Amino acid sequence: MNDPAARALIVVDVQRDFLPGGALAVTGGDAVLAPIRTLMERGRFGLQVATQDWHPAGHVSFASAHPGTRPFDSIPLYGHDQTLWPDHCVQGTPGAALDPALPWDRVSAIIRKGTDPACDSYSAIRNNWNAAGERPPTGLAGYLSDLSVREVWVCGLTRDFCALWTAEDAAAAGFHAALLWDLTRPVDPAADEAVRARLRRAGVGVIEGNGL
Q1: pTM, whole model, 2 decimals?
Q2: Domain parsing of the chain, residue ranges
Q3: Which residue among the candidates 89, 119, 162, 169 is catalytic per the annotation?
Q4: Please, are residues 114 and 89 in contact by the beta-carbon 8 Å criterion?
Q5: 162 catalytic, yes or no?
Q6: Hey, how many other C-beta atoms are within 10 angstroms of the C-beta on 119?
Q7: What's the Rg (C-alpha) of the chain?
Q8: On the chain, which terminus has fewer CB atoms closer than 10 Å, C or N?
Q9: CB-based burial label for 66 (10 Å; 0-12, 13-18, 19+)
Q10: Could you tell me whether strands 80-83 and 109-113 are parallel, antiparallel, or unpaired per DSSP bridges?
């Protein structure tokens, strides 16, 4: 971490619906707030970016949009498995808001994901597959490249979905990517070893964020 200007911190989906009391609450999600705030305030990144799930009502990833299914069921969608979720982070609702515990004035951009009602979006870099079999880019990779960013550091929620996919896609886009393991929390803690294996295969570093 010798050149702050070349580093970007991506703070993934730290929204009320993923925190205790939210529609898709992640166990221990609130434990990442203080250390992420500290990291954001230290000024060790030349660029900080946030992501925000921003689903329209009736989104294709919601179990409520598929009669006969329940949250956390999986269905085939466009040739891939789609996890179905409780309705969450619906545009304009309190649960979609970025949690005020973090200093959002320090971020240079907020990437809103999942805005297409027919396509999910875990990653900050690319959307999930659409009906054409494509994963359209969000534009973030180009934005980072234009600003001469070479390193991408990922924290936030959740470890086994949006943070994971963001880190994988950052590496695939040619960035040196790292996931700050202790500054994430998973939907499913039992998936941690599988997540570590996926990150290794993708060439993503797994490091601790406390102390950076």
Answers
A1: 0.96
A2: 4-56+87-207
A3: 162
A4: yes
A5: yes
A6: 22
A7: 16
A8: N
A9: middle
A10: unpaired
CATH of 4-56+87-207, one of 3.30.565.10, 3.40.630.30, 3.40.50.850, 3.40.1620.10: 3.40.50.850
- What's at 70, amino acid-wise? R
Closest CA to 155 of 125, 120, 185: 185
| Res 5: pLDDT | 85
3-state DSSP assignment of residue 91: coil
**Contact by Cβ (8 Å): 65, 73:** no
Helix (H, G, I), strand (E, B) or coil at 48: strand
- Mean pLDDT for 51-57 is 98
Q: Among the options 13, 87, 160, 169, which is catalytic?
A: 13
- Work out the angle at residue 26's Cα, subtended by the Cα atoms of residues 128 and 14, and round it to the nearest 5 degrees: 65
State yes or no: is 13 an active-site residue: yes
**Coil, helix or strand for 201?**
helix
Q: What is the pLDDT of residue 59?
A: 98
In angstroms, the CA 119 to CA 4 distance is: 35
Q: Which of 99, 113, 119, 169 is catalytic?
A: 113
pLDDT digits (tens, 9 = 90+) for 178-204: 999 999 999 999 999 999 999 999 999
**Contact (Cβ atoms closer than 8 angstroms) between residue 152 and residue 178:** yes
